[in-house]
Amino acid sequence: DDVYQDGESYTLNVANAGEHNFEQLTSNEATVNITDTVDTTTLTLGDITVAEGSDSATVSATLSHATDRAFTVTLSNGATITFAAGATTGTSSAFAVQGEDVYQDGESYTISVVNAGEHNFEQLDTSDTATVTVTDTVDTTTLTLGDITVAEGSDSATVSATLSNPTDRAFTVTLSNGATITFAAGETIGTSSEFAVQGDDVYRDGESYTLSVANAGEHNFEQLDTRDTATVTVTDSVDTVNVTIESNGDVTEAQDAVFTIKADRVLSDDLVVTLSNGDTVTIQAGEQSVAYSVAAQGDDVYADAGSVTLGLTDASVAGKVFEDLQLGGDATVNITDTVDTTTLTLGDITVAEGSDSATVSATLSNPTDRAFTVTLSNGAT
Known about the structure:
- By secondary structure, the protein is mostly beta strands.
- The protein folds into three domains: about 40-135, Immunoglobulin-like (Sandwich), CATH 2.60.40.2030; about 140-235, Sandwich (Immunoglobulin-like); about 240-335, CalX-beta domain (Immunoglobulin-like, Sandwich).
- It is about 0% helix and about 40% strand.
- The protein has a four-stranded mixed sheet, with no helix packed on it.
- Strand 26 (about 270-275) and strand 27 form a beta hairpin.
- The radius of gyration is 59 Å and the shape is rod-shaped.
- This is LapA adhesin domain-containing protein.
- It comes from Brenneria nigrifluens DSM 30175 = ATCC 13028.
- InterPro entries: CalX-like_sf, LapA_adhesin_dom.
């Protein structure tokens, strides 16, 4: 008994009749037919695992009985396996596998025998299949964020992002400030949604901060490196604050001298203004001016008309520095005299003739603020 297709038929006849005693012995031929018993030979294909990007792959095959002649089987992927006469093992011709890429796309598929070739087995079982597993090699794709510089007061800003490899599907990343960047399938460049930046103001407060990727989204890269950050630089736009002082008008010596200190814009913080006399006044947040009074000289009898002049030496907001502070010039309030009369009274005298001399007294209705001399009509002083 064997596994090959080798059934046969042959004839037998009498070659020697021996020492019989028949008057005549005749004979005929006998036909001997040997039929095959059907024995199955099994062809087994070997599973393989290869990494994506391998140049090619092969599968092995094993026969449960050696073949009595060379024959070739064809696999479902077009590869062929040739068994040499007397062999039980064979290896397929090389076939291509998935190329190297950056995507999560490992795969597994089966190969089967589609043509068993011209073998001589009574029965060849080719139902076995080989599983080809292609594993991902981990290749890194890098996401790079672009730095930006914007002026304060810009309505909004965006940052750009670049992938070192195009994506095979659309996906969205979320930045640390909540903005999102969507990459379309096949693209390497994306731009974030708009986000707010620092509003325009009068203070030196340009700033710089970083944005990072908070969520990489549902991409299909084997490995996506999102460690890069974007630096957002907000530059000051120079806004000028003008602070001035002005007179509220001239006064008499009995009136207070009043000045008004003004800012040319409404601030959201208290503005403290230092005057040239060392005093300070505060323009409250939301206001634009404040009044300042210098006490009245007071009504008197002296010729002392004059003026009060005040200037500005500083203006500040606690914890902040102005981009451009301009202080106005001095202001003057003129003080006019009110005319008050002082009376000089001479005292009468009586003297005896023959007195060597005499004097008269004089009285002022208000004290003098300085020494002075009057001359009488007789030349006395």
